[in-house]
Automatic annotation (TrEMBL):
Gene3D superfamilies with a match to the protein in the record: Tetratricopeptide repeat domain
Cross-referenced InterPro entries: TPR-like_helical_dom_sf (IPR011990), TPR_rpt (IPR019734)
Protein name: Uncharacterized protein
Pfam family, one: TPR_1
Compositional bias (Low complexity): 163-189
SMART domains associated with the record: TPR
UniProt region (Disordered), positions on chain: 123-231
Length: 231
């Protein structure tokens, strides 16, 4: 903390670490002089040490617009420290910058400002890199999903093509069997026709043989009659 402004008794208690005593003193002063900027600053600084951030913030905010530039700069500096401790980096940096505007020679404010600025820039760089990594991972995931989808579509097309080919092969393999069956049926039919033809030929031959026999008998009878006449 910067050197305290205000009554010697309050500063002495503060510097001795007797924060309860210092706070009681500044509260007593403010009860009598509400607009005492030095006492307000002392109360804010003491409350900050006691981790009473509500009183510290309220008291220091009351001083940062003081007509005393040096006192206002110290209040802004302490507010910057408070915001930094709360990880409110942007607010802290703004307080340090305003403190330097009021007191450009404040080395503590200058050092804290530069260090915090570097921290913020580093955080922004890391966040950007992290975002880029996330975007890269997302693009990678999207590409993998798209590739997987394309592969699946290609597999489906190949499966359909293979199924179609299998069906064609099945049809082709069934044709010889059908042709063979048709040929067998045709041969069987021809065989049946041949049997009938053979039977018909046999009957015809039998009829022819019978006809020959009948003719021979007729000839024999004819000869017999002639012999009888002659006799």
């Amino acid at each position: 903390m910067s050197a305290l402004q205000g009554q010697d008794k309050g500063r002495k208690a503060y510097r001795s670490g007797k924060y309860d005593e210092a706070r009681a003193y500044y509260e007593h002063v403010l009860n009598n002089r509400k607009n005492d900027a030095a006492a307000q600053f002392g109360l804010g600084a003491t409350a900050y040490k006691q981790q009473d951030m509500e009183i510290a913030t309220r008291s220091l905010n009351a001083v940062k617009n003081s007509d005393d530039p040096s006192l206002a700069a110290k209040a802004l500096y302490n507010l910057g420290n408070m915001f930094r401790d709360q990880q409110k980096m942007a607010e802290s940096l703004a307080m340090y910058r305003k403190a330097l505007e009021l007191d450009p020679m404040d080395e503590d404010a200058k050092i804290n400002y530069e260090l915090l600025k570097q921290v913020i820039e580093q955080q922004q760089t890391e966040e950007q890199e992290q975002q880029q990594d996330q975007n890269s991972e997302q693009r990678k995931d999207d590409d993998e999903q798209n590739q997987a989808s394309q592969d699946q579509q290609q597999d489906n097309k190949e499966d359909q093509k293979q199924n179609h080919q299998n069906q064609e092969n099945q049809k082709q393999s069934e044709k010889p069997a059908q042709q063979q069956q048709s040929q067998v049926e045709q041969e069987a039919s021809q065989g049946k026709k041949s049997d009938k033809q053979m039977q018909a030929e046999a009957i015809l031959n039998a009829l022819k043989d019978q006809e020959k026999i009948n003719q021979k008998r007729q000839i024999a009878k004819s000869k017999s009659r002639k012999m009888e006449k002659d006799w």
